[in-house]
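Please review this one:
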Amino acid sequence: MMLKQIVLALMFLLFLVSSEYIPIYYPEQPLLLKAAQTLGVLSLALLLDSLVGGVVSRVKLYKLRYFLSKISSYIIYIIALVIGMGIWIEQTQSLVVAMGFIGAGIAIALQRPLMNLVGFLVLITIRPYEVGHRIEIGQERGDVIDIQLMYTKIMEIGGDSNYDQFTGKIKEIPNAFVMEKTISNYSGDFNFIWEEMAIPITYSSNLKKARKVMEDAANEVTEKFIEDSEKQLKKMTYKYLFEPRDVMPTVYVIPTDNWIELRLRFIVDSKHRRRHVNPVFEKILNKIQKAKDITISSRTSARVWDATRTRKSY
């Protein structure tokens, strides 16, 4: 980093000195002077970006560090662009006219990139999602790791089959998608999702005890989320026309031809589904294995001998 800054500083000084001596030795080469001045502005912008980046990198809060880095870079390069255009177009009126023609040409030739830029403006003003949020936009799902002028970068997550764990792929989504696709935000105003777990038991099992086993297991694991989720839901009622929902673990009973399905509904952190679902299942399984009056059913053990159930299913 230090070597890069030294090289950029030397380049800036070289172009600065060149811009002083070119009019003396090459008075009939105005383009050469403008080129030297433009390169000097560019090298200075790169040097300032590197220096500011070094200072910002010392900020410990990663979100603040990210935003300071982005904002400072944008400001530096926008100022450098304006100065560079001023070097080549000397009169203000000509500059305005030139920018108008350039803008019209860009609007026609670069329609899609412009839509991405408009999408970027939407992202920094309306903020449908931010860095760190877990989102689904179109068919893409993942955690937002960077928002650039043209693209949003996400760390991809898998589907429900692997409980939204990272796949290791980094994908770039055009910012124009913000205005074209449906956005699902898993961690905007509410950082939790409801998970459901189905466990079949035989008709001869102790239903009341089985329900309590499942609810207790979920309570032990998700107790720390319940209070936080209730606060977030209450806060949402001040922002949206929204009725709070019960976040306590609940077991629903669904009768089938072969077994009783107990469906446990409980709340988990939206970014760590498997980390919380797995211990809930392990606790339930351990308690059921110790209980003599609860039997997990399956297709091979769900034979019902008669309507009065005089014999146990096996």
Observations:
- The longest strand covers residues 192-201.
- The chain has three domains: 2-109, 124-185, 192-290.
